[in-house]
Specification:
- The longest helix is centred in the middle third of the chain and has 16 residues.
- The chain has a six-stranded mixed sheet with strand order 1-6-5-4-3-2, with helices on both faces.
- The chain has six helices and six strands, in the order H-H-E-H-E-H-H-E-E-E-H-E.
- The protein is of the alpha+beta class and about 190 residues long.
- The chain is elongated and about 60 Å long.
- A hairpin with a 7-residue loop joins strand 3 and strand 4.
Length: about 190
């Protein structure tokens, strides 16, 4: 890790020490987490270089009604080169909509081993990290929920919820700017 990466990684690690919600919100408002920050933390957990447990949570959801049928595939194959028939267009429309409506949930739960009861979940889907069509005014971001934002929720109950729901609905999270393109995200903007 270079010295340039340190402020951003420190900004991420600072989250683990904050126990007051107002302080957490203020810190996250100024923070920017780079893709390498999260990756470095995950690797440090896996190598047991830090006393933090890591649980990855990945879910892929796409609406069943958008799966092309054998008839859709056959119509597309039979169409050949040129303008698409109505039946062949149905196949391409389903594929387009599948990319539009699918959800690729990526979550990382961290459990500091030295602090029982402390937990942190950083998560996003492909829409959260999209820089062009983002629903958040500041663009690409991660969501954070932890024992400060959800004091009545145990990590076990959260893991069960994430496992049970096809499209997890998680409220009360904090947005943190995410720099997916830079290996040296600034700690504040």
């Amino acid at each position: 890790m270079s010295a340039q990466d340190e402020p951003s990684l420190n900004s991420l690690l600072t989250i683990f020490n904050i126990t007051r919600k107002a302080e957490l919100v203020d810190h996250c408002r100024a923070a920017v987490i780079g893709k390498s920050d999260l990756a470095n933390l995950i690797l440090a957990c896996q190598m047991q270089a830090v006393p933090i447990g890591h649980i990855p949570i990945f879910k892929h959801h796409h609406p069943e009604h958008l799966n092309p049928t054998d008839e859709d595939r056959a119509a597309f194959a039979a169409n050949g080169v040129g303008k698409l028939s109505k039946e062949a267009r149905k196949f391409t429309n389903k594929i387009d909509q599948m990319f539009e409506q699918r959800r690729l949930f990526c979550g990382h739960m961290f459990l500091p081993l030295e602090w029982p009861g402390h937990w942190h979940l950083f998560y996003f889907d492909q829409r959260d990290t999209d820089q062009r069509n983002n629903h958040w005014e500041h663009g690409s971001h991660l969501h954070l929920m932890n024992m400060v934002t959800h004091p009545r929720l145990s990590p076990e109950a959260l893991a069960q919820k994430l496992d049970a729901e096809v499209r997890p609905k998680l409220g009360g999270t904090i947005h943190i700017r995410f720099d997916r393109d830079s290996n040296q995200a600034a700690s504040a903007r």
